[in-house]
Structures are given as structure tokens and as C-alpha cells.
Amino acid sequence: MLAALSAALVGLAIVLSFWVAPEDADQGISQKIFYFHVPIALTAYACFGWGAWKALRLLWKGGDRHDLESYVAIHQGTIFGALTLATGSIWAKASWGHWWVWDSNQLVLFLVLFLFYSAYFMLRFSIEEGPRRANVSAVYALFGVALIPVSFFAIRLAEDFIHPTTFTRDGPQMTGTMFLAFCVSWVAITLVAYTLYRVELLGKRLDGNLRELREALS
Amino acid sequence: MIHGRSVEKRYGSRRALRPLDLDLARGGFLVVTGANGSGKTTLLRLVVGLAAPSGGSLEVHAERGVLGYLGHEPLLYRDLTALENLDLYGRLYRVPQRRERIGMLLERYGLWDVRAERVAAYSRGMTQRLALCRALLHEPELLVLDEPFTALDAEGAALLDRQLTELAGAATVLVTTHDPERVEQLATARVALA
Amino acid sequence: MRYFGDVAALARKDLRLELRARDTLPAMLLFVLSTLVVFHFALPTGADEVAAQGLLWVALVFTALLGLARAWAPERDGGALEGLVLAPSDRSAIWLGKSAAVFVFLGLIELVALPAFALFFSPLQAEGVAGALLANVGICAVGTLLAAMAAASRTRELILPLLFLPLAIPLVVGGVGASVSTEPGRYLLFLGLYDAVFAILCWASFEYVVSE
To answer: To the nearest 5 percent, what fractions of chain C are helix, strand and coil?
Structure first.
């Protein structure tokens, strides 16, 4: 049911973005991707934040549940992070003719985060399952959210000596319908993320139960 | 001092210790036997707190400062001397009159002459004896020994026999061994792991 | 206070071990000097002075990684880490003592590397050196903790750079900025902020990295 709702909302978001909202004066049709790129980015942040929250709960209270939830949240976050990079890249190509620009702070931040969270998975899967793996993953997840603002400032500061910003920032001035399209899109994508989160969590839990059953029977 | 109900340990799908009930009163001497892979080492690691149980409950009424542990590894720095190793541990365990106690133990276990040599140069028997000194350094109330006789030479084994006889009743002791006859007379309780 | 006594004893232990074994420091020294020479050949003529500053930081970060990879090796050899974890002292003292020792090692390396850099490329200002010191704190704090995580992993030395590099990026920005920018104060402040945030995080979370 959740999936159906998500699908419907995404459909609505697409309609709104492409047909209803007026074209942006400067960037034209390529600006439409903004309606998806920014919500995807925000959703990724939300996933990382949720993952870190669950990590904190794990360290506080302990229990397999929080570990799994933290892991799945970060997994979703990384997927959406990859999507952010992809949509951002498309936008860059459409707007400025390059597949990658160092000028977009948002994009650079996501690149750093993507590297960081990719390492999360390498770390997690190189440790044997158990409380140790859960603890180490949790601590790393907490480092991740600390890194987000710190990296953001670093990238801002780096502008000083790397590239001066010549382009206007993300987020063009939005009219009423544009804003509506944006919000619908945001809700839709958040819902998709949540659905995927629940689906993956369910799948992993089933896996776990199945394994335990198998163990008990042998 | 130790109360465990259905204590078990799993690493993912690998079962390291089957559910076990455990009781050890203060001053008791528990001998744990079992085949290789039955979970003897795992149980001891759970008791001292190096691992947490996956299921069941385990209460150990002894905090870190009064626990003495001898595991499969000596828990020593190979490039430090015996004196330096024990001095560091003595400091961390807040042992009163550290120097005297270290001197006494080293002498007792026949390591006084090699006290300034690096552990890397020791034989296996000597290393195990030093590890034992480390475990006893702070006069623990609960002594947990994982197959202590295995790496000891004859002389060291005799010294350990004597030490255990002295400790029985005064401290609580938990020992795993392949050789239960050795500690049979001292045992107040026995557990055999499947 | 007991806590700092523990930290001091642990740091002294690491210094003593390195003095005896003498394997890590010389290797780091040779590595950083070789890297600087490689950079000379990697920079085409007409390249900025600024570019060279950036490369200094690359050299420092990778040299630090070299040292960090072996930071917990003595504890692994004889199982001593478990011995330290079992002791009644605070677990965070283990991290702090080790970080302090790594800080000293890195500092000693920089005592040679920075003058060498000045010799090969261009001299450093006081701000650059201050930046290096501040960044060191971050490198040692975070690096020591990540090295402990890596030690728990099957892939050990392989994974440490992957964990460390994203976290080192802000440090590199801070360090290069302090040397190169017209307003070094901002960058030094930023480095201080990084150090504060991550040192506290490391201090609080080390316990969980070494326990089950």
C-alpha cells in the first residue's frame, strides 16, 4: 500500500514538475531536474541522520534491532547519495556543459560523503558479525554526521583558493506553482525512501529469522 | 559471585556457546571441561567481559579491578621487559607498593633473573609464567584461567599448583582445563561443556 | 589525576617501544622525503607555489597513514589490547595515550619534513606551521581511532586509508588554506573546530570500538 502511494506521488511530482510549473527563465528545461535533485539530496541527508540516530540508540541501549535499522538507513542514504551525484551531474551537463563541476558545493559535499559511506560498507563487511561489528559501524555512522557540517564548511573555505564561484547557487527564485511542484516532489521522494527502507528492513529481518531457524534445526 | 542463566554466544549464525546455566559462589573453585570448540574460551571471555552474551543473562559480581584473567594469549608487550610490562599493568590496576609486589611475583615464578629481558626472548613457558604474574598482580578476587597448564613447563606447573592451592577458598577461581585431575581436589564445582 | 597518569604511562610505553624497535619512524621519514622528491618531478615547470603547498599536505597525510597503519601493532602481537581493555582504567585513556604518542612521532617527522619542503620548494610561514600543528591533532585523534577500527577488520591495512581519507579532506583544506590564503586566521580557526569536534567524538566513542 505504501509502495502504491509512493508511486502515485512520484507520478504526480513528475507531472507537476514537467507540465505545470513554468520554465525557468535562465536555465530552461534543464532546471526541471532541480525538482528531483534537491529532494533526493535532502532525503539522503535525512537517511544519514536517521542512521546516525539509530547508531546512537545502539550504543546507548544495544540490541540487534538498532544495528539493522542503522545499516539499512545508511544503505538507503548511500543509494540516494549516488542518485544525487547522478542527477547533479546531469544538471551540470545540461546547464554548464560539463559532466562534473567543482563549483557546486552541494555536489562536492556529496562526493566526499559518498566516499565516506562507501567505506562504511567496506568496513562493515570486513568484520565478523556480532556486537563488535555493530559497535564499530555505529561509531563510524556518528562520525559521518559530524563530517557533514565540517565538510560543508571546509568546502566553503576551500573556495578561497580553489575556484571562485561564478555561478549562482542552487535554488532559483520559485513562484507559487514551482514551490508546489517542489514540495510534492520532496514528499514523494521521501516516501519512496521510506518505502524502500521498510522493504529492505523487512527483507533483512526475514533473512535473519530464516538463518536462525536453519541454525536451530541443524 | 557468578550467576548465569541460559548464557549463550553466537557470532552471526555460528554458535560459539550453547545455552548454559552457571553458578559460582564466592570462594568457590569451578573447573570447566569440554572438547575443543565446545565454548570453554568463549565462556571465560563472557565472564571477564571481553565479549557480551547473545542470549540469556550473566551476572558477574566483580568489577574490572578485581578480575584476573589468563587467556590463550599472554596479553603482554613482546618488546617490553617483564619489569616494564608489569609496571604498566601495576599502574593501570592501581596496585599498592607496585615495585615490591612485582619483585615478589617475579621471584616466586623464577623470572627475577630475566626481568630486564624483552618478552620476545622468553620461551613459551616463561611467557606463560609472566602472563600468570600479570593476572595475579593486583590480588584478584575472581581469577579466571583458560587452560593455564597447557603452555607451562613442569616447574611452572608446579608453581601454579601451589598458587591455586593457596588461593582456593580465599579467592574465587574459574579454570578451564584438558587435565581435570590436576585440580580435582580443589574443585568445589564442575561443569562439562558439550 | 589518575586518568592523566594512565595516559602518560601508556604514551611513554609507546615511545619506549618505538625507541627500541626503531622501525616506524625511519620508514616514515624516508617516505616523506621520497614523496617530496617525487613531487618535484610531478610538478611541471611554471606550476604554482600554491600547488606545491597542496602537495606538502598530501605528503603529510600519506606519511601519517603509513605510521597509523602500525600504530596498534604492538597491542596486536601479544594480545595486549585485551589486557588494557580489562584494566579498571578508563578505556578512553588507551586512545588518548596512543594518540599522544602518534602526535609526537608525526611532530618529529615534520621537524624534518617541513624544513626539507622549504628547501626543495618554498619556505613556510608561521601560519603554515601552526596549521600543520593543528592538523596534526586532528590526524592523530581521528587516525588512531580509525586504526583501532581497522584492526578489528579482516582487511586491516587495506581499509585504513579508505576510512581516513574522507575525514582528512577538511584537514587538508585547513592546512593548505592556512599557508596560502590571505586570511589564515579563518583556516586555523576551522582546524581548531575540527579538532575539538572530532577529538571529543573519538574520546567518547573509543570505548565502543574496543568492546563488545
So the answer is: 85, 0, 15
